Amino acid sequence: xxxxxxxxxxxxxxxxxxxxxxxxxxxxxxxxxxxxxxxxxxxxxxxxxxxxxxxxxxxxxxxxxxxxxxxxxxxxxxxxxxxxxxxxxxxxxxxxxxxxxxxxxxxxxxxxxxxxxxxxxxxxxxxxxxxxxxxxxxxxxxxxxxxxxxxxxxxxxxxxxxxxxxxxxxxxxxxxxxxxxxxxxxxxxxxxxxxxxxxxxxxxxxxxxxxxxxxx
Length: 216
Description:
Number of helices: 6
């Protein structure tokens, strides 16, 4: 009996320590946390040491640093019916942890899917030559559209970068043929101009020779 009482006291002490520690939450400098009690939102926990109600609490930490999301490559048909494979990188930052947790199931996945559909819509309204020459304009347009859509999720779109615009193989072959034909056309023009110039110079030379001969 004398041994059981100290053991019970130790167990009780450990239980008290565990309960107390469950109410202590440490939030890192680059985080904020959503604090809920019994399934109800209470408040946002800021960086540092926070004391909450023990046991009956749920704390979800949200990273406030800039995050990089990879938008997978997808085939898009341009306005001039040229299939191209396009992918992108999106830089995001959580500005409102409460909305980022309660307004959307997974803000990262939702942002990637939204970026895919928006990119497909923008590329589909442009011709291939416009896409290849206006990449920066597309980046800005995509960023603005995404930022407006993700604002209700408490997510800020900082930058969007289209990483690669890769036309389909048959489109590449057509572009190469077009480029080759253009080079041949320019070469033919240069050759014709050269012959014309040579003929003019030759005629001028004959004319000058005849004048000099007549004067002599």
